[in-house]
Amino acid sequence: MAKKRKKSKSGQRGASDEAEGADKTTNLPEKGKPDRRKSRSDGIVMTLYPAVLGVIFGFASLELFGTGVPEEGAVGMTYPWYFVMTLVIAISYYIQRFTYPFMKINVDEFKAKDWFYVEFIAVDLWLVSWTLLLN
């Protein structure tokens, strides 16, 4: 004759936990259309605004700093490209930090990832536009 195995207490607990888990539902807040629309429009603004700033900084860099390479015989002080890039990063950060509230974008909710995103766009388009203008 085959012996019947007794169920261990842990096995019984697991079965009862599964039955209780089926009854539980999570109440997550649903995003409504206005919230989704607002976040989508904020995302578009947070992409286009740094892009426009980057292009403006590209033209300004050409006008103010020229090639960004120290040239022999140049009159006045000529700044290297990495100094110009540091200036672009710092100035574009503070411009965005103080102008987003006027666009009704909450800067206090920004995380490091968001700031990296907008700064990358600004610096990338600055570098592309400045490079194209130098050629």
Describe the structure.
It contains 4 helices and no strands. The protein has 135 residues and is mostly helical. The protein has a domain at 47-135. Helix 2 (33-65) runs parallel beside helix 4 and helix 3 packs across helix 4. The longest helix is centred in the middle third of the chain and has 33 residues, at 33-65.
Uncertain segments are none
Number of strands: 0
Query: DSSP helix count?
Result: 4
Distance separating the two termini: 91 Å
Structure class: mainly alpha
Q: H/E element string?
A: HHHH
Strand content: under 5%
Fraction of residues in helices?
Answer: 55-70%
Pfam family, one: EMC6_arch
Transmembrane segments: 43-66, 78-95, 115-133
Keywords: Membrane, Transmembrane, Transmembrane helix
Region (Disordered): 1-39
